[in-house]
Amino acid sequence: MVKTYGERTDKSMKTVVRLEKASLKITNKTLSYLSQHGLTFNQFKVLEVLYHRGDLNIGSITKLTMSTPGNITVVVKNLKRDEWITSIKDPNDNRASILTITQKGKEVIEKVFPEHAKNLYKAMEVLSDEELDTLYSLVNKVYKAN
Amino acid sequence: MVKTYGERTDKSMKTVVRLEKASLKITNKTLSYLSQHGLTFNQFKVLEVLYHRGDLNIGSITKLTMSTPGNITVVVKNLKRDEWITSIKDPNDNRASILTITQKGKEVIEKVFPEHAKNLYKAMEVLSDEELDTLYSLVNKVYKAN
Question: Considering its fold, how many domains does chain A have in total?
Fold first, then answer.
């Protein structure tokens, strides 16, 4: 059964679906790698962003991890319980908190991140340097337009 | 704080993250559109695949929707309850079922799909025809390699 919604629309749909499936495949690999280390994707993302960018408030973290405030609240609560992060009141905004990764949290990331980086290197290995640049710039264009 | 894991690795990570975020943005738009029509993403995917490809067994549907057997079982149960699909035993495999979209299910897809197609057209509108082709082929390459 072949149905068409116009050539450009068909191609757009095909591309969006491929984008989702490629992304899902890599995400699933990441999830399985992280779960071997007892980490959820959101825990990892929060630790990683605090490790690489330094202290941040919850709003920025929610944005950077493309999460929802509800999800992040739970993740942050568990990370604090495990003493992987600490939080203090934001001096500029009484309702907000600023999060900091602890030494214990840093050790988690330092144990897990290098192999994660290697896994993502491998996930893109099929592309030449030029293709990788092109893919980044096209996906970035789509990201910004949506 | 700037940390590098090597130029190619950094670029691979940046690209994977952009891929995930671009895909997530479009998925979120789709989810919000579908929820306005009382559909979950998985329900929509199963109906859509039966509508456009014809009858399929659950194994094929699980693959095509990149879902898990557990998820699909629940989705199929609800779609049957709503009389949007029917199932019969697969004559070639006694443990498997073949699913068929009903007239009622077709009407759901025919109501929802054209605007969904338009939404995905718009999501990719920022790209030229050539860029869209390039994006598809690069993402497909990554998809197949992972």
Answer: 1
